[in-house]
Design brief:
By secondary structure, this protein is an alpha/beta fold. The protein has helices at 10-24, 37-46, 64-70, 87-92, 105-115, 171-175, 221-230, and strands spanning 2-6, 30-34, 51-54, 57-58, 61-62, 76-81, 97-100, 128-133, 136-141, 145-151, 154-159, 164-167, 182-186, 189-192, 196-201, 207-211, 216-219. The protein contains seven helices and 17 strands.
């Protein structure tokens, strides 16, 4: 993992570096730091990042400024802040975890376990996905999403109105942010089950998931039996 820690208090910065090295061990490839939003943004534009560890109060500036600008990027964000009243807002912006200050190694380790896909106890999820559209950030409400399709190192969000938006995160990373109503139904597709109207059989006995829009996506064999039971087939 390539880690960027954004924190303006030296003692907390040192502690985060030490605990991160303890937790990740050989998984840690590179760890860099920034003490301001401007420095963090410059670092993110010039360096590869897998995990952003972000404080919300940086010399009086709001860390959400950075989050809103770069929420569509491929990295995961862990917010580390004493402002627990903003936790729900952070989750709605698609952060992978909110760690309240003060924190210990065990709590920080839970965040990395979540990123590695080992945490199945999530109770907070994204309310919308941030995408880049015509040079600005657009927030797409989850209720407006029909399905998400893999596209190499990124994904395409297909809205219920048929429009498409590109997202820099891969399906496996978006899965960690989405609520249980979104299911991985195929290696290349995540479906919003609230938009599903039924199942269909195609050529060569292949199964498809149909939406209210009359669009359809492939359904993997391993998910067919499970979804037939859920949909009452």
């Amino acid at each position: 993992m390539n880690i960027l820690i954004v924190e303006d208090e030296a003692s907390i910065m040192d502690r985060l570096k030490r605990l991160t090295r303890n937790i990740l061990g050989e998984r840690l490839q590179n760890l860099v730091t920034a003490q301001s939003l401007a420095e963090a943004e410059a670092t993110l534009h010039n360096s590869e990042c897998d995990v952003l560890m972000l404080d919300l109060n940086l010399n009086g500036r709001d860390g959400f400024e950075l989050l809103r600008k770069l929420a569509s990027r491929s990295f995961h964000t862990i917010v580390i802040s004493a402002y627990t009243s903003r936790a729900i807002e952070a989750y709605e912006h698609g952060v992978i975890d909110f760690v309240p200050k003060p924190f210990d190694e065990e709590r920080l380790a839970q965040s990395f376990q979540r990123i590695l896909g080992h945490d199945t106890q999530r109770t907070h999820f994204a309310k919308f996905l941030a995408v880049r559209c015509h040079g600005r950030i657009e927030l797409v409400c989850l209720d407006e999403i029909e399905h998400i399709q893999a596209d190499g190192p990124c994904s395409h969000i297909v809205k219920t109105d048929g429009s498409r938006r590109a997202h820099d995160k891969m399906l496996k990373d978006l899965e960690l942010l989405l609520p249980p109503s979104f299911e991985r139904v195929h290696k290349s597709y995540i479906a919003n089950m609230a938009a599903v109207s039924g199942l269909a059989m195609g050529p060569d006995h292949k199964n498809f998931l149909q939406f209210s829009s009359r669009r359809s996506i492939p359904l993997s064999r391993s998910k067919t039996k499970e979804l037939k039971a859920k949909l009452g087939y």
